[in-house]
């Protein structure tokens, strides 16, 4: 079973993403900011991290760097409120594998995760958009 962490200051975004991902038989952990997310990663690094591009407490590049200090390679998808090519490219250079625009629905979230897994050559998670 895949483990996913949702990092977003909005409890609504976390709740919607949790509902969608749990319906795909994923174990979901939530964090409201980067420090809380890194504390979760110290316990166990998830397979997938969905993280908002503008964390309230740290720069995205610092967050991505710290996640990778655990010698783990989770798939990291950043979420943005508007298309920002510069932010996407900086995140990809720092280790993110994809992006997702907010607000999202079931098909967008699952499609983004499928694309992220496909672009890295890792085994894709089993997800349906039903």
TrEMBL record:
<keyword id="KW-0804">Transcription</keyword>
<feature type="domain" description="Response regulatory">
    <location>
        <begin position="3"/>
        <end position="117"/>
    </location>
</feature>
<dbReference type="Pfam" id="PF00072">
    <property type="entry name" value="Response_reg"/>
</dbReference>
<dbReference type="InterPro" id="IPR001789">
    <property type="entry name" value="Sig_transdc_resp-reg_receiver"/>
</dbReference>
<dbReference type="InterPro" id="IPR050595">
    <property type="entry name" value="Bact_response_regulator"/>
</dbReference>
<dbReference type="InterPro" id="IPR011006">
    <property type="entry name" value="CheY-like_superfamily"/>
</dbReference>
<keyword id="KW-0597">Phosphoprotein</keyword>
<keyword id="KW-0805">Transcription regulation</keyword>
<protein>
    <submittedName>
        <fullName>Response regulator</fullName>
    </submittedName>
</protein>
């Amino acid at each position: 079973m895949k483990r996913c962490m949702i990092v977003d200051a909005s409890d609504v975004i976390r709740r919607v993403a949790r509902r969608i991902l749990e319906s795909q038989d994923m174990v979901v952990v939530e964090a409201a900011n980067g420090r809380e997310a890194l504390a979760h990663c110290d316990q166990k690094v998830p397979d997938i991290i969905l993280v908002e591009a503008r964390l309230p407490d740290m720069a995205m590049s610092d967050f991505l760097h710290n996640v990778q200090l655990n010698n783990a390679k989770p798939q990291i998808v950043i979420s943005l409120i508007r298309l920002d090519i510069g932010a996407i490219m900086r995140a990809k250079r720092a280790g993110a594998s994809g992006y997702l625009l907010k607000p999202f629905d079931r098909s967008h979230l699952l499609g983004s995760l499928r694309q992220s897994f496909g672009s890295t050559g890792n085994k894709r998670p089993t997800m349906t958009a039903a």
